[in-house]
Write a structure and sequence with these properties.
The protein has 308 residues and is mainly alpha-helical. It is built from 14 helices and 2 strands; from the N terminus they run E-E-H-H-H-H-H-H-H-H-H-H-H-H-H-H.
Length: 308
């Protein structure tokens, strides 16, 4: 009987340690557990993409079998494919990100869980945007929002997921210059964040939707809408230390750097790129961030510290 989790099969995640034992592959196939998913999420949140990449094949192998084990198994498989999609995005592998996200959406629908579908829809939005399929991204996000808000009294977890889906939809709308829709969705997410902040924390999993998270998205939203003054105003109000993960702090610095570069402040953009590296070193190796650094070097090759 396949009772072992991926972790007990030979993957130890925690305290900065990852060990993949080759004997795990020869042993009976392990099951995915909630602990497995949580451990993998911690690696992503910490910006530890190299370690996540090394362990992910074992998780993906378990996910492929997990979908056959009912709604709970489908939900856990969807969670793995969401992580795989997010990691592929970080690596600049849009096609792979889209394929993983499509599997996540399919498994999420089979699970019947609105929270899982929302996570899968958000993962799918990025590769869909990058392949000029914004309408599909918006349809998925709106489907997720409809499920999350179907009940008369959504839970804190549903509010959290709904706010994050609204932020992702706002960012998606901004990329195709739908200003009114982007503003409405961002305001909806901010209202949900305020409502959520008044509720007690009842889960061990940190909430994603916060005032700081809304500011991070606002930076990107207004940059895509061509309103750099608003983007940089939101960046000034943001306190990066309040963001819950290294990945989010790096994202905030990256989006601020892009806005500063668009505004012509190359030196300040470079300072933000150094904050990216400080928050999560592997973020600085992302193709998109390396391209930003190359642009800075082209414009201001004299900046102190640039060669390093």
């Amino acid at each position: 009987m396949e009772r072992r989790s991926v972790l007990t099969a030979g993957v130890a995640l925690g305290a900065g340690l990852l060990t993949v034992l080759t004997s795990a592959w020869a042993a009976p196939a392990p099951r995915l557990s909630a602990g497995d998913i949580a451990a993998a999420r911690r690696l992503f949140a910490a910006g530890d993409y190299a370690r996540l990449g090394r362990v992910l094949p074992l998780f993906l192998d378990a996910a492929a079998r997990s979908t056959e084990r009912g709604p709970v198994g489908a939900a856990r498989a969807a969670d793995v494919w969401v992580l795989a999609s997010h990691l592929a995005v970080k690596q600049g592998r849009t096609q792979a990100a889209g394929a993983f996200a499509a599997r996540a959406v399919d498994a999420a629908r089979r699970s019947g869980q609105a929270l899982v579908l929302a996570a899968a829809a958000r993962a799918a939005a990025t590769p869909l945007r990058r392949t000029d399929r914004t309408d599909e991204a918006m349809h998925l996000l709106q489907e997720a929002l409809a499920h999350l808000t179907a009940g008369p009294r959504p839970t804190a977890a549903e509010l959290d997921a709904a706010g994050m889906a609204a932020l992702t939809a706002a960012y998606t709308a901004a990329q195709v210059h739908q200003r009114v829709l982007a503003e409405d969705l961002a305001a909806q997410a901010e209202q949900t964040a305020r409502r959520l902040a008044s509720l007690p924390l009842t889960s061990a999993r940190p909430r994603q939707l916060t005032a700081g998270q809304c500011l991070v998205y606002r930076i990107g939203i207004h940059r895509h809408l061509g309103d750099l003054d608003a983007a940089l105003a939101h960046a000034r109000h943001l306190q990066p230390e309040t963001l819950p993960t290294a990945e989010r702090r790096a994202r905030a610095a990256t989006d601020t750097a892009r806005s500063l570069l668009d505004a012509g402040d190359t030196a300040a953009a470079f300072a933000q790129l150094r904050l990216v590296e400080l928050a999560a070193p592997l973020e600085a190796h992302r193709p998109s961030v390396r391209a930003l650094t190359a642009r800075v070097a082209e414009l201001r090759p004299d900046l102190p510290g640039l060669s390093d």
